[in-house]
Amino acid sequence: MQSPPIFEPSHTPSHFLPLTLWLGIQLLVLLAAATQIRLSDQFPRPPERLALDEMLVAQVAMAAMLFPLLLRNAATTALVVAASWPFVQLAGVLSSASPVNVFSAGCYVSVWLVVLGLCSPLLRTEKAKMLAVATATAAALGGALIWYVRAEFAFDPSEPSSAAASAMGPIVGALAASHGQAVAISVWGPMAIALAISLTAAVIAWIRRGKTLNKGHAIVSTPV
């Protein structure tokens, strides 16, 4: 008997809502940068200089908050990952970022989406989904808030090292990747560990599900 897929099977209509929501979020962020909306009184000029940073923060944070809806299965995850790249590229053009940094940032966000996509099918109850969303959101936003407070109130105005940035979560890691630390192991290490853990958990769940189905098939096939 064939083993079940790691991701739940999907139907084309189920992709419409997640993909539309994801495209809408990114479009709003890109429009905010393109129309030079200043998010604070001391926002850099011109405002579109931070278009790539804004896009990365929005992609990482919103994916963490909405991943049970956005990343339901393998097909939807692939569509969401693919849909993130054009907006990263456009934001990079607005902010005049180097192609290498834009590519590195896009890869970082893609790996984050894959990590969440691998975890999403493992969440079978609403309580598990809420707990997972809270954990992912705390991981994404917690370190970024600490980094902001440090930059705003610390006496030392220097930016944290790549090692310190990687320990502050995926938002700060994505920003570090987009600011010239494209090949720093300390930036990519934590994300690689998260990918390995989520992939291992998905494979274990797939094996267990296969054993359960085989056992049930054997019981049904046993003659009375």
Salient structural properties:
224 residues, mainly alpha, 71% helix, globular
* Helix percent band: over 70%
Q: How many domain regions?
A: 1
Topology pattern, helix = H, strand = E: HHHHHHHH
| Coarse structural class | mainly alpha
Question: What characteristic shape results from the CA principal axes?
Answer: globular
From the alpha carbons, calculate the radius of gyration and give it in angstroms.
20 Å
In terms of quaternary structure, the protein is single chain
Give the number of DSSP strands: 0
Strand content: under 5%
Structure notes:
The chain has 224 residues and is an all-alpha fold. It has one domain (12-221). The chain contains 8 helices and no strands. The protein has helices spanning 16-34, 51-70, 74-94, 99-119, 126-153, 162-166, 170-178, 185-221. Helix 2 runs antiparallel to helix 5. The longest helix has 37 residues, at 185-221.
Structure described in brief:
The protein has 224 residues and is mainly α. It has eight helices and no strands.
List the helices and strands and how they pair.
Blueprint: H1 16-34, H2 51-70, H3 74-94, H4 99-119, H5 126-153, H6 162-166, H7 170-178, H8 185-221
Helix pairs in contact: 1-2, 1-3, 2-3, 2-4, 2-5, 2-7, 3-4, 4-7, 4-8
